[in-house]
Amino acid sequence: xxxxxxxxxxxxxxxxxxxxxxxxxxxxxxxxxxxxxxxxxxxxxxxxxxxxxxxxxxxxxxxxxxxxxxxxxxxxxxxxxxxxxxxxxxxxxxxxxxxxxxxxxxxxxxxxxxxxxxxxxxxxxxxxxxxxxxxxxxxxxxxxxxxxxxxxxxxxxxxxxxxxxxxxxxxxxxxxxxxxxxxxxxxxxxxxxxxxxxxxxxxxxxxxxxxxxxxxxxxxxxxxxxxxxxxxxxxxxxxxxxxxxxxxxxxxxxxxxxxxxxx
Length: 263
Description:
With 263 residues, the chain is α/β, with parallel strands linked by helices. The protein has twelve helices and nine strands.
């Protein structure tokens, strides 16, 4: 059983937590996420043009890059995390340039070596899967695909083809951290996606509070929270870990205590 399968096989929805690599004390913050009850962790790869991200994560990218964070540093952070936490799924999330500039085979091999379970590449759509997908799958790394409110029935099979780990439903047609979709639209979308795939469906973008997360967790297999963590790190800097852990626990309690996942 893969780490993803184990995380989503629990009899409750999963908390998927995102932070940007190299922003603040990343190792301490990753440990805090695990201690607080995060089930899956996404580690953002800093990039100069994070087109899907709102102001909070844009600022985190700039803080990380200003410190000189490199792709090699990200793999070092990932490998050290895997040594400390052998069972928690770890996803690298980012953009095509850092993932492909040295070649897809190199990137996939480094992911496998560092113990990375999955990759989310925001700006390589399913139609361009050959750019990265075959190399990742050959290395045993899941390519996690994004579905959005505009992913219609005609395109959804292409999105799902070659996808692994879980399906990430971007609940708003916009950038991270700025707004949340109406719950009714999330309910409808999750039902439609779950009818089309056996992959777990995790919902993100605009989720900032335990109450919001709990509502989504009543229908989804997982809830993704990112910008709210980034705000804590921006406020507390290298001393953020205790605050990250406390907020993680509040989210995990809300999500794990939500109703049984709808069939």
